[in-house]
Amino acid sequence: MSTPALPLSPTDAAPPGGAAAESGMAPLPTPAASPSRPQPLVRRLALGLAALAVVAACGSLGYLFSERQATAALRVEANYRLDLFAAAVEGIVKRLEHVPATVQLNQDIQALLRDPRRPQRVQEANTYLRRLNAHLGSISVFVLNERGVVLASSNADQGDDSLVGEDLSFRPYFLDALSGRVGRHFAIGVRHGEPGYFVSHPIRDGARVIGVAAIKIGLQPVDQAWAMLGAPALLADLNQVVILSSEPQWRYTALAELPVERRVDLQLNRLYNGLRIPPFPLPVQLHVDEDSQVIEGVMRGGVPPRERLQRHDMLLLGRTLDGMDWRLLTFTDLRGVRNQALAHGMLSGLAAGFLLLLALFLAQRRSIVRQRLEAQRMLEQANAGLEQKVARRTRALSETNARLRREVAEREQAEQTLRAAQDELVQAAKLAVLGQLATGITHELTQPLGAIRTLSGNAEEFLRRGELKAVAGNLGIVARLVDQMGGIIQPLKAFARKSQATPVRCDVAHAAASALFLFEQRLRKERVELRNGCEAGRVFAWCDPNRLQQVLINLIGNALDAMRDAPAKVLTLRADLEPAADGDGAAAAPRVRIDVLDSGSGFSEQTLARLFEPFFTTKAAGAGLGLGLVISRDIVRDFRGELEAANRAEGGARLTVRLPAAPDNPEAS
Ligand code: ADP
What we know:
Blueprint: H1 10-13, H2 41-94, H3 99-103, H4 107-114, H5 119-136, E1 140-145, E2 150-153, H6 172-178, E3 183-188, E4 195-205, E5 208-218, H7 220-224, E6 233-236, E7 242-245, H8 260-269, E8 284-288, E9 294-299, E10 314-320, E11 327-333, H9 335-465, H10 468-496, E12 504-507, H11 508-518, H12 520-525, E13 529-532, E14 540-543, H13 545-562, E15 570-578, E16 591-597, H14 605-610, H15 628-638, E17 642-647, E18 653-660
Adenosine-5'-diphosphate (ADP) binds at residues 554, 558-559, 562, 598, 600-603, 607, 611, 616-619, 624-629, 653.
């Protein structure tokens, strides 16, 4: 028996990939499975939205911060410009504010007021005023009597333009001065509609006010200074009416709605020369800080769509001019600031987005590195586990191998023991057959022995009588009888001898004859008809003749036993060559078929099932061991043959021995 090839190397032992589960090995853990499961869509969406929110928040913060910073800077600059501008306006106006007070001190004026009917005094006063006006560069300087009629004026010599004789008692500056106060306000000129700033001062004669000195200061220099502010701007008077503006369409509009009594006043004092005063085109709401006189403005309500300045794009800042009740307002455009803030907001958003992406990238990279390390660790673990398993399996296989080798050795030993036992059994069976035959043989030998006894006794008598011829005849018969007895004993000796089971070219007819010879007397005694179909020199089997003879003795013995009570006892022996076919139907080596047929009882179903069981017998105790057929089949199988049993259709049993046919040239085989 050959030792099976056992896989001892790890590669042989390790099952290929997919077979891991079948082999009971744990499958390699996939690294992606544990640390980073694929994120669910909802979580990703939420993260995306959160990132967007962060970007939007950063953008908004950037926008607000930038806008606030830029607005503050703008405010500082605008305030600075406003201060400058306010100072310029105050300079233009206040430079000449004291002039009326000076006029009252003039002797000519005093004289005129005391005696206004004298033309010379009028003349002198006019001359003085003209010179003064020319020197100061104001629009006009004039003197009114206590009824408000102009007595003398700097422009008295300008014909129709002359104010002399004009009744200006309706002007607030006249009324203020008449009441002993300094009067000052903006008004449009009654003659040419030229706007100006009027300042008046009472002229006293003792405690009594006898007239009023007034100056009209031109405001063109203010108009020329708008550029200094660098933004649309306006000047509004006490009534919140825009009197000067860099935007011409804003002029003579009211920043706040005028109360009715004020309107009536305006009708009377004709400050705006009877002009209709529409509301300011932009809806502004002003807040004046009483301490600092700083004005902050906001837009309220909607803005006409085609208005040049848009509500959201303006910063309203202003000042109340010192001691003048005038308000200076600038409208600084904030669009630049907003655009810049927008750019900064976008940049902040982008920066935040970039930082988020960077953080994401770093997190991803860290996660990938972690996954790789994890995968590597698991791979190493799996590898170590695999190696352990391989080592375990290799150990187990080595042990199995050793056990198999041991078992093979044991089986070989057992086979040897079995074979020895079989040989012993064959021998025992032979001896048993010899024992059975002993009576017959004794009987066979008794007759010749008796004859020899008689013949030898007769020979003694013939010798005494001297009948040598008769003695010789008797001795001749004795010799023949002894030969006959030797003939009987010779096959028994050959049968009893232990033989080596070596296959040779064996004549089946010869083996059959030897077996039948042993049963000769029994066949005769039991009146068995023998039909021996085996012809000498016709069929040759490839086996040991002695063993074949043993098999046939067993089969013939059983057949005779089975026919003991049969009415007709026919024993038939046949030997033929039959071509054997292998599994594929292809012709193979021819086989010898030997049939032993009897007309006995045949096999019962139960007997047929247990026929080849050791120690199965239906015979009486001592008559059979139940080993004959078992041994016979083993013998036949030893020569690569087969023994089969069947019932015959016509009654009785058929035992068939198949053996390989002997080759024609045994040397070659
Ligand atoms: P034994 O002859 O010692 O009983 P065998 O193994 O030779 O042992 O035979 C077993 C049994 O098979 C026999 O007891 C018998 O019942 C049955 N048997 C064998 N040969 C025949 C036969 N030719 N006809 C009927 N029965 C048979």
